[in-house]
Amino acid sequence: MKTSTKNRILEAGAEIIHLKGFYHTGIQEILSAAAVPKGSFYNYFKNKDDFGLQLIDYFVEYYTHLSRNILEDGTIPPLERIRRLLEWFIEFFKSKDYAYGCPIGNLAQEMGDLSPAFRKKLKMALGSIVDIHSRLLAKAQREGELSQSLDVREAARFLISSWHGALVHMKAVKGPEPLENHIRFIFDHVLRP
Domains of the chain, with CATH numbers? Predict the structure, then answer.
């Protein structure tokens, strides 16, 4: 299937911005990586900020795509699906020499205080990721894997926030220990029957 020009620009920009950040990435760098002329950019995006806002949607779709096979596998208990996803991400970050982090988290740190439009879009993006985990935790609760007293929405928010903190720490130590600690703590102390 042929990738549209807009998708090529988003894919190239996503890769570069995920590693370098939004402000440290220029439009020309993205277009060179996508192998498209500069005029093409403005056919699809009003400006760099518009591109960044659309990129957030791209990252959410990408996360959903990456996680779907694990999180929607009905043959695996819900909590085990979450554990497997986190372990999959540890292997992913290992393959990237413990760089990158979460693109949504990175953009939230970089742009959340600077742009109301980015802040609103990032809040929605993080909320959609929390929704995915909240539904899985609710299923685990119904199946007796979790305490009935656990507020699954609050637990999902904590899980995502803690994971983002572990990713920041991972980049500082260039190793998996913060992510492994996150998994141990979450499953030994938070997500209990």
Answer: 1-45 (1.10.10.60), 48-190 (1.10.357.10)
